[in-house]
Amino acid sequence: MPPEDGSKTYTVDEALVAMGFGYFHVLVLSYAGMAWISEAMEMMLLSFVGPALKSAWGISSHQQSLITSVVFAGMLVGAYSWGMVSDKHGRRKGFLMTATVTASAGFLSSLAPNYISLLFFRCLVGVGLGGGPVLSSWFLEFIPAPNRGTWMVIFSAFWTLGTIFEASLAWFVMPTLGWRYLLALSSIPSSLLLLFYWVAPESPRFLCSKGRTTEALSILEKIARLNGTKLPPGRLVSDHQIELHEKNPESEDTHLLSPTRGNEDATTKATNPNTGVLSSLLVLLSPKLLRSTLLLWFVFFGNAFSYYGLVLLTSELSNGQSKCIPKLLREEKSQDVSYRDIFITGFAELPGLLIAAFTVDRLGRKSSMSSMFFICCICLLPLLVHQPQNLTTGFLFGARTCITATFTIVYIYAPEIYPTSVRTSGVGLASSVGRIGGMTCPLVAIGLIHGCHQTTAVILFEIVIFLSGICVLLFPLETKGRELTDHVLPQNK
Questions:
Q1: What one-character-per-residue DSSP string does 368-409 give?
Q2: In 118-190, which ranges are E strands?
Q3: Transmembrane region positions (predicted)?
Q4: How far, in Å, are 169, 194, 317, 410, 457 from residue 440 at the CA level?
Q5: Does residue 380 register a pLDDT over 50?
Q6: I need a labelling partner for 336 at 20 to 30 A (CA). Which of 233, 318, 380, 426 fits?
């Protein structure tokens, strides 16, 4: 019997399926969820700080837009950088550095003595927030394949909790204590990540991809112990080791995959710091992944442009900008943010999450995303002309619901199409492209609305959202029910 057991093997995916979702996963979900709450709060507060500073410091509309844009500029740098660190040195080191940067810069921005220093600290906050994809990929790598879509939607619910909590916090803090207290209090969740960092485990999938199967096995045994289950019989192996037995070791695919201890040349190449960035880009832009990568970049751009644009539109259209009014009166009303309307539209993310949860594992990733993009276009159509305040809030509520669903699903889909060796790099780079959308949307949401060009702004949103839906339909791969892999998946349906 022992020899027979010794000849059996199992992968990380098979181990996760055998152990199921248990107490260990609840702890991992809580930790990763705290990071998602932190990022949502730091992004949501931009809706409140800009108008407050316009009144307190007398900044222009362009300077107000720049406060948001520098955060996205920092995220543009941070997203791919932290993804590279995570793929090379581990998920834990990646999110340790992101949490440190976000927490410290977030608190220091509350003490900023002037506009320039505030821009600097908010840009650093953006660099830290760029590590969000690292934690989402880390959590994803612990989830059994059959329920991955549903649990990733539950994970995304923490973002919604963050937006609602930030709107509630601003509602109580801004009228009495002011924007500095809002910035300081909003940095607390990132600090909690540092407090509990020591108990966060490394991803066993990452360890396997680096040939560190002994360490990976130790973590899997811990998962089984906390979940009250057992590992499958046999020996733990990586997908890469299985592939090496099935394919020619000298094939092109082998050199694109993450190294194992049995492949000394590949290991040397992967651990060379001068080739890490280039080799990751070569995989992401290789013939098997090129189409998916380019389409994913546009979808991330469209999602970020639309989501953050709708958030900013809500604050702008609820403080006197829903119709064109004289400039002097508009200046007087710029501080009059409707916390009620922003709070209500924040709740729009809850039905968005429910829709994503219901459709992602039933209709699939592609059908769910594309349908939500097209329905979002329909919700925005009435805003081509000025509407009463309540109708404007209602239409923005519907659009926010749809774009939340697409954002949730794309963060499930993106890690599923990439192999472990470049997963966080791929998602990080796509997220970086999304940040370009986030950088440009304030110029639309604030600049055009202030210039009495609401129709032009809405038309631009319609075009971007519609094209994003078309790109989703062109994705070559549906990942519903597929296991995560250490090698490049065939790019077909």
A1: HHHHHHHHHHHHHGGGGS---HHHHHHHHHHHHHHHHHHHHH
A2: none
A3: 15-36, 66-83, 95-113, 119-140, 152-173, 179-200, 294-313, 372-389, 395-414, 426-449, 455-475
A4: 27, 32, 18, 20, 12
A5: yes
A6: 380
CA distance 444 to 450: 9
- Torsion sign over Cα 313, 162, 194, 83: negative
55: tokens are: 């009144």
Give CA angle at 83 (81, 85), nearest 5°.
Answer: 70
375 contacts: CB under 8 Å, gap ≥ 6:
398, 402
pTM of the model: 0.70
Residue with tokens 């075009």: 463
Q: CB neighbours of 394 closer than 8 A, spacing ≥ 6?
A: none
More confident residue, 214 or 260: 214
d(CA 446, CA 442): 5
Residue with tokens 């979900």: 29
CA 161 to CA 404: how far, in whole Å?
13
CA distance 220 to 321: 55
Of the CA atoms within 13 Å of residue 244, those in its CB half-sphere come to 17
Tens of pLDDT, residues 112-153: 999 999 999 999 999 988 887 788 888 888 888 777 777 888
Reading the block at residue 371, the tokens are: 């349908």
Contact 454, 118 (CB under 8 A): no
CA angle, residues 32, 105, 172, in degrees to nearest 5: 75
The amino acid occupying position 460 is L
Helix (H) or strand (E) holding 276: helix 276-284
Reading the block at residue 132, the tokens are: 């969000």
